[in-house]
Structure formats: C-alpha cells, structure tokens
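Researcher: Please predict.
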Amino acid sequence: MLYESLMSQYRHLTFKESLLMPKGLSGLYIDKQIIINNRLSFYEKHCVLAEEIGHYETTYGDITNLESVSNQKLELTARRWGYEKIVSLDKLIECYVGDHRTEDDICTYLEITPQYLYSAIDRYLQRYGLSTVYNGYLIFFDPLNIEKDFF
C-alpha cells in the first residue's frame, strides 16, 4: 500500500485519521501532525496525504487564511510537491514499463484518483510543455503517452 509506504518515509511525523475535520478540509498539517479526513476514499486519502506532507516540506506558519495571495501560493507549492512525489516522472515511466497505460490502470497502480492524475499531468504541461525527455523516455503530456527514447 503506497499510502502506508509514504507515511513510513516520515516516521518523525504523527498521522491520524479523523471524522472531526474543519469544514471543507480533507487534510491538515499542524506541528508535525497530519490529520486526514476519515470520510475520504482510500485513494483520496493518499492524494491528500501527499499534499499535507508537501506542507511539511515547503510551508511555514499558519496559511489557513486562503484569502491571502501569499497563502494561496504556499498552498499551490505544497500541492505541486505532492504531485511530484506520488505521480513523479519516474512513476509514470514505471506505469509504462509495467503496461499500466489506461487511466484506470495508472490510477490503480499509483493509488490515486483520476482527478489527481489529471492535475499532476496539467502541472507537468505547465512545467515542460507538451513533452519532455527524461531518463531515456519521451513523455508526452497531452495526451499522456510514453515512448522509449531512441535519439
């Protein structure tokens, strides 16, 4: 299970699932503790966990006021960190090599939701454009396709 594996990489943090979450929040990072909404599906929990660890890795201070532009930027930074952690280019290549090429296969292999997959791909489109060469593979982002690089 990738959810538990991700937690095990951060043994110095405390993880808790709770039904009692502030309205509209799927997860929360406070003082080396990550709280995940227990009402979420397993795959949703994995996606939220990645973002909350992203807050631990990239954010400072209280950013709960999302009316603030600087807090919105920190929120986006943590979200992007999460995308690159659990839907990395290496993971996308693993999917290709393991013949996980449909949306369902990729999401099942990575234990993520389709929405999270598309958001990660959109992030890579913004960062690299329509394609990039990475570790001997040509990765196209729209539509997602990976080819062994023969250049």
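Model: The beta strands are 14-18, 27-30, 33-37, 131-134, 137-141, 144-148.
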